[in-house]
Design brief:
The complex is a heterodimer of chains A (694) and B (251). Chain A is an alpha+beta fold and 694 residues long. Chain A has 17 helices and 19 strands. Chain A has three domains: 176 residues, Immunoglobulin-like (Sandwich), CATH 2.60.40.2380; 235 residues, Rhopdopsin 7-helix transmembrane proteins; 199 residues, Heat Shock Protein 90 (2-Layer Sandwich). In chain A, the strands form five sheets. In chain A, strands 1, 3, 5, 7, 8 and 10 form a six-stranded mixed beta sheet that branches. Chain A has a five-stranded mixed beta sheet with strand order 14-16-17-19-18. A four-stranded antiparallel beta sheet of chain A has the order 2-12-6-9. Chain A is rod-shaped. Chain B folds into two domains: 134 residues, 3-Layer(aba) Sandwich (Rossmann fold), CATH 3.40.50.2300; 106 residues, LytTr DNA-binding domain (OB fold (Dihydrolipoamide Acetyltransferase, E2P)). Chain B is 36% helix and 31% strand. The longest helix of chain B is centred in the middle third of the chain and has 17 residues. Chains A and B meet through α11 of A and α1 and β5 of B. Chain A: It comes from Chitinophaga tropicalis.
Chain lengths: 694, 251
């Protein structure tokens, strides 16, 4: 801005100097229109006035103070940094004879109005044209040569109002041509711009091809990166097509909308080389997965660029044409280094990925082309002008664009190939996997079948084993129970007290030298022991044996108790004692109990024991063991032993009966009756044992 | 002379005891006899004997009832005479009260009388009878007290459940208690292993028997057993399996 201001100041100074130092001799161009020297430089004959802010009205202009100012003229395009609104005044005197027309040419400017002053100092508009104004087709380029017709010998005054909105002003070099000269000038211009146009058209063709390829590919393989590439191509095509608009004498497409080329100038560059470029890079390199940070960065920058594009549109609509140019320059300079860093980061991050290579090569081509073009422009135009001209496509940039497009397109194709390969491989793998699965399934089925077979046999084997085991277990349990019962039988039947007490008695008889008694006692005792041993091995014995055993036992007891007891065994004569079988020593414990408790009655000096065998039914033997003791109920209350020492003789007997019933299904019933329950005068216990006969 | 009383429900028994005493133990004088508990208690109260021969089972009670009935009179020594001791085996043996089995043989009778004579002479403690009655009333084997004869008329009285393990010494048995105290008994290791065999004890090798409740851990791999008081003992290979099963059952 400071530079601009100084520049303005300088311009002002120059113009003020010129006001005073202008030569009035050149006020009027006096020329023989018929014999005009070639291409008269009109600068010395032109008076000019700057009209900043467009205050001058048509009425004021003739009266305004015009002056000579060479500084407003320039042969090249020039960045004047502001809009330029000026009036030029030309007095022409035809010194010749004929009134042939001359052509006044002052360059290609945005708005141009050609006036003639009549005698009453009024301005009449002869023609208007301009880059931003003229909608004619190729004919519009003829409008820039303004006709000057002056009758011979007369003087006319013409005014040219030039209004340049663009800060880059096209060459402003007023020249006067006659018809022939103008024709020559026109064809040289046509020739000159044709070169550029052809170049642009070739480029357009190539870009169109790229676009077509992108679209076709997108249809075949809907991939977002194709869309971005297509948008980038389309933007470029539009940009270059609009470039044709400002090529003099060339055919153009969008001549009906002269403003379009301004709108799609800087925004097009931002759109193509930043917005679409970033979006394309994002999708093409699949940064979202490969480099999330870079993806975020790309997205933010793209959004920012989008906002800038909108801002540019707004500025153009507000006729601030220099602002987008400045913005673009700043964006360009600001992104020069970061872009390099991004390239380096991308290259490092995915060094060996071919897609990155394509992207990087394309980007670098364009980057170098841009930078090269910028450097080349700096030399002839100076830094500021070069910045202003950044958006102008040079040959180098066009080459860069082409290369970039090629690389990108090639990358896209490669990507297609990769996708295709991937798909093929996936399919192959799928097929392989499917085959493998099939094989696996088959194997598994076989294995499963085998396993089931094995397991079934195993289960059967286990079952059998288990059954055998259970059988064995049952048998052992049974055996165990049996031995237990047998043992219990022995234990229950031979009371060790009885044995040792007997021996004690025998010992006494020996010591007392009562040998006869001792011998009888001893033989009875031996008999009893022998029978006990014998019976304990058998389960059933004859009733006769049982009775003999009881007899011997009771005899020994009687001997021990010094005849303090009596006993009697009564047998029903119908009973065949030798043939009848009873469980071995079933009765002995009850008899022993009867002896024990029969002796405890203090009111009865002699314990009486009665054992009866009766046939109560044809198949039922009844055995009654009766004593005259205190009775089972009272004897239970008499016990003084603590619970844990209580004798269990009777319980054992009951258990035995139960076990016998279980084992032999004998159905033996045992009842213990206290005599006092029926008759108060009597005392004692009756044990009633019912033994069914088979 | 030692003044004695015989209490037995069988006359044959009474006769042979007195006959044998007369013959082999002249220092014992039979003051009286009785044939049942009630009569026995009365006879003892009347005669205040120094020694009582006591039958275990009588029609109206046991020998313990006689002792319980005579607790208030001056203490006397007792010898149990029984045909079959199994029912009261631990009760009697734990208290080290003398017992003679029928038929009576001369040697055991003489040994018992001699021991009692020396006790009477030394006016030794009769605490054993209190232990006997306590054991009889408490009943449950593992809560019983144990009298350990320590030579002479000395003896220790311990609770059975304080025993960690027993060990065979030279002609003696060494009791290791759970507080790591050691007591020597005037009886053989063998005597105690037989006596404890039906209780919760287990002989882990030829010379050691442990109380199962004192075991904290059985290391079957290294044939070792750790006791709760920290002592580690070795287990004989062939007894290992039984030990583990016994211990598990106990736990």
């Amino acid at each position: 801005m400071t530079v601009n201001r100084i520049y303005l100041l300088f311009l002002f100074l120059c113009s003020s100097l010129n006001i005073f130092g202008s030569a009035p001799a050149n006020d009027t161009l006096a020329a023989d229109f018929s014999h005009l020297p070639s291409g008269i430089d009109l600068r010395p004959y032109l008076f000019s006035i700057e009209d900043k802010g467009e205050h001058l009205t048509l009425k004021q202009v003739p009266a305004a103070e015009f002056s000579h100012n060479y500084l407003i003229f320039h042969e090249q395009r020039k960045n004047i940094g502001k809009e330029h609104n000026c009036w030029l005044k030309l007095h022409v005197k035809n010194t010749g004879q004929s009134d042939s027309a001359l052509t006044f040419f002052a360059g290609w400017h945005d708005y141009m109005y050609w006036y003639i002053q009549d005698s009453s100092q009024q301005l009449h508009l002869l023609r208007q044209t301009g880059m931003m104004l003229d909608r004619d087709n190729v004919r519009r380029w003829e409008h820039y040569g303004f006709p000057i017709t002056v009758p011979p010998g007369q003087t006319r005054t013409f005014f040219l109002h030039i209004n340049n909105k663009i800060h880059n002003e096209n060459a402003l070099m007023p020249t006067l041509f006659n018809a022939l000269q103008y024709e020559g000038f026109r064809s040289s211009q046509l020739e000159f711009y044709r070169k550029e146009t052809v170049l642009v058209q070739v480029l357009l063709g190539m870009l169109l091809v790229c676009l077509a390829i992108a679209i076709i590919n997108y249809i075949q393989l809907p991939d977002r990166s194709y869309l971005y590439f297509a948008a980038y191509m389309l933007g470029l095509i539009l940009f270059f097509t609009l470039r044709l608009e400002s090529k003099p004498y060339q055919l153009s497409v969008f001549y009906r909308w002269p403003m379009l080329k301004y709108y799609w100038d800087v925004p097009a560059l931002l759109f193509c080389f930043y917005l679409m470029y970033l979006a394309f890079g994002n999708a093409f390199l699949n940064l979202q997965e490969r480099y999330p940070f870079m993806e975020k960065l790309f997205n933010y920058v793209a959004a920012f660029i989008g906002a800038i594009i909108l801002l540019c549109f707004y500025c153009i609509a507000m006729e601030q044409y220099h602002v987008p140019g400045m913005i673009y320059s700043y964006v360009y300079l600001a992104t020069l280094l970061p872009l390099l860093v991004v390239f380096a980061a991308l290259a490092r991050r995915s060094r060996h990925h071919p897609l990155v290579r394509f992207f990087l090569f394309g980007s670098l081509c364009f980057y170098i082309a841009c930078f090269g073009s910028f450097i080349m422009l700096v030399k002839p135009l100076g830094l500021i002008s070069a910045l202003g001209e950044l958006s102008a496509p040079s040959l180098l940039i066009i080459a860069g664009v082409l290369l970039q497009s090629m690389f990108f397109l090639a990358g896209l194709s490669y990507r297609n190939k990769l996708v295709h390969n991937e798909r093929t491989r996936t399919q192959e793998m799928l097929i392989k996997q499917l085959n493998k699965n099939k094989e696996l399934q088959r194997k598994l089925n076989e294995q499963l079948e085998e396993l089931v077979k094995e397991q079934t046999t195993e289960i059967l084997r286990k079952k059998q084993e288990l059954e055998e085991q259970r059988k064995i277990q049952l048998e052992t349990e049974y055996d165990k129970k049996l031995t237990e019962i047998e043992l219990k039988a022995i234990r229950a039947q031979i009371n060790p007290h009885f044995i040792f007490n007997c021996l004690n008695s025998i010992q006494l008889f020996v010591m007392q030298r009562d040998y006869e008694y001792a011998q009888k006692y001893l033989s009875d005792f031996s008999y009893l022991i022998r029978k006990t041993l014998d019976f304990s091995r058998r389960n059933f014995i004859s009733l006769a044996d049982e009775i003999a055993y009881l007899n011997t036992y009771l005899g020994l007891e009687k001997m021990r108790f010094e005849n303090k007891m009596e006993y009697e065994i009564v047998i029903d004569p119908v009973i065949a004692t030798a043939e009848l079988e009873v469980p071995a020593m079933l009765l002995q414990p009850y008899v022993e109990n009867a002896v024990k408790y029969g002796m405890t009655n203090s009111s009865q000096a002699i314990g009486r024991l009665l054992i009866q065998f009766n046939q109560v039914a044809p198949d039922m033997l009844e055995c009654l063991i009766e004593d005259n003791g205190i009775g089972i109920n009272r004897s239970k209350t008499l016990r003084t032993l603590p619970k844990h020492h209580q004798s269990s003789g009777m319980e054992i007997s009951f258990n035995r009966a139960e076990l016998l019933n279980k084992m032999y299904n004998t159905g033996i019933h045992i009842y213990v009756i206290d005599k006092s329950e029926n008759n108060n005068t009597e005392s004692g216990t009756i044990v009633r044992i019912l033994i069914p006969q088979l | 002379m030692i003044k004695a009383v015989i209490i037995d429900d069988e006359r044959n028994s009474r006769d042979i005891i007195s006959l044998m005493l007369e013959k082999y133990c002249p220092n014992v004088q039979i003051a009286a006899t009785a044939s049942d508990c009630a009569g026995g208690i009365e006879t003892i109260r009347r005669h205040e004997p120094q020694l009582v021969f006591l039958d275990l089972e009588m029609p109206d009670g046991t020998g313990f009832d006689v002792l319980l009935g005579t607790q208030e009179i001056p203490p006397f020594e007792a010898v149990f005479v029984t045909a079959f001791e199994k029912k009261f085996l631990h009760t009697i043996r734990f208290s080290e009260v003398e017992i003679i089995l029928k038929p009576i043989d001369r040697e055991s009778l003489m040994a018992a009388v001699e021991k009692i004579a020396s006790r009477i002479e030394a006016q030794a403690s009769t605490y054993r009878y209190k232990v006997l009655l306590d054991n009889f009333n408490n009943g449950h084997n593992i809560n019983m007290d144990l009298v350990i004869p320590a030579g002479g008329n000395e003896e220790h009285i311990i609770s059975l459940n304080t025993i960690a393990f027993l060990e065979a010494g030279t002609e003696k048995c060494v009791f290791h208690l759970n507080d790591e105290q050691q007591l020597d008994a005037e009886r053989s290791f063998r005597y105690y292993t037989d006596l404890f065999s039906t209780l919760r004890f287990f002989q882990i090798n030829n010379h050691q028997m442990v109380q199962l409740s004192q075991i904290s851990q059985v290391d079957a791999e290294h044939n070792r057993v750790s006791l709760k008081n920290g002592v580690k003992l070795e287990v004989a290979e062939r007894r290992k399996k039984d030990l583990v099963s016994h211990w598990k059952q106990y736990k």
